[in-house]
Amino acid sequence: MELFDGIEAVPPGYGPSAVTVGKFDGVHLGHRAVIARLRALATERGLSAVAMTFDRHPLAFHAPDACPVSLVSLAQKLDLLAHTGLDATVLLRYDAALASVTAEEFVRDHLVGALGARALLVGRDFRYGAGNTGDVALLERLAPELGFEVIVVDDVVPEDDRKVSSTWIRELLGEGRVREAGELLGRPPVLRSTVVHGERLGRELGFPTANLDPAVEGFIPLDGVYATWATIDGVRYPAATSIGNNPTFEGVPEHRIEAHLIDATVDAYDRTIELEFVDRLRGMVRFDSVDALISALAADVARVRELLA
Question: Under DSSP, is residue 289 helix (H, G, I), strand (E, B) or coil?
């Protein structure tokens, strides 16, 4: 997949192409369905399959206090898009200049002028341009003049008449329901960070852990203990991961994330670690004794073995 960093990075005369536009937060099943249809259409018509996205949620510019926490970092999003089979992704910087582009200018200059769009796949509620004044009706009015076709893609609705959305996935992760969130994402939820030094409490208890730098990429689920897969340097390990402050001990920082790699001893300091969340085992509990905590940790490891077998 080619990555064009800004509309100005698209080579002159690029296209013709089939294009879809969106935030693609999480690159979930709904996004994947649109991209799959885009690719099929592009192949059928001899077009390039192109996604246009943004470096941040538009609300991060317009109303930061109201902006939701992203499901994935920008780097994670681009990695996920690169594995969907797209020919190219155009990354737009959402700044004052882009926010002032009118809806018609966006279509003429960005979609048709730069990308040679011949087909545009959008959701029924697609909005664009300054003040979000552009809609599907405007696209359909401009299409004959500018030579592209508008294709409205239906939402993916797995159950209860609720469409797959980043909002729904955030709700599930906020409740610790990582398995259900993974079903909507089409993959396990993932956190990515660097392994740093901790207080070595786990090592003293017989359960050494890889402690994650607080600068974590991805949406952090509800505090608790989880069955996860940990990947370091391309090697995947089963792991029991805890999120929280370990209330059995005083002075442990809140929302520390640490992973105990099962049946593995790895010098992971300063290396990148990715955690795939499979299921939640339990919430964080204050134990009356260290022995009780050790017993609970042993039970957690046994449960993780079962879940990941």
Answer: coil
